[in-house]
Amino acid sequence: MTTRIKALALAAALGTAVIVPSLAIAHGDGPKDGKRAEYMEMRFQQMDADKDGKITTAEIESFHAARFAAADANGDGKLSLEEMDAARAEQRQERFGRMIAKLDKDGDGQLSAEEMPMRGERMMKLDTNGDGAVSLEEMKAAKGHHGPKH
User: Fold this and answer.
1) Which residues contact 64 (CB under 8 A, 6 or more apart)?
2) Which of 24, 75, 105, 145 is the most exposed place for a label (fewest CB within 10 A)?
3) Nearest Cα to 30, choosing from 149, 136, 128, 150?
4) Entry pTM
């Protein structure tokens, strides 16, 4: 394989976290709580370089090439485990920053226990028969649709 094809293949693999959820949402298989849709909209805006409301193959490839280049700290055209770990840590920091900005009610830049979403309340949305408890069957029925993320 040529270096360009390898780079595009790796970029595509790194972009799977963006592409696969978008396909699931397009087919109605994504979470219904709007969080995945919110994330996908943000990614779409990042990829839509000319801001025409559409993303082309060239824009997608450019977006992923830029992400690859940013992760390739030593510029050797390859990603080591360390570079991939560092890139993932940066993404996690960005995600947590957005979460704090969204949930930080008192504006102190930190989340208190009271500001954190209540997982129990979210989990109880799976209680489809209204008995006040979530059965294994209800969890399985909701898997990939409404279930809490770990």
Assistant:
1) 8, 11, 12, 14, 15
2) 75
3) 149
4) 0.51
Q: Which residue is it, tokens 């799976």?
A: 126
> Six-digit token pair at 87?
């890139």
Span 85-96, average pLDDT = 92
Question: Nearest 10 degrees: CA dihedral of 24, 67, 7, 52?
Answer: 60
Cα separation, 17 vs 149, whole angstroms:
15
The C-alpha angle with vertex 25 and arms to 22 and 31, in degrees rounded to 5, equals 120
Question: What is the residue-wise DSSP string for 77-102?
Answer: SS--HHHHHHHHHHHHHHHHHHHHHH
Question: Tokens for 132?
Answer: 């006040």
Q: How far apart are CA 126 and CA 148, in angstroms?
A: 9
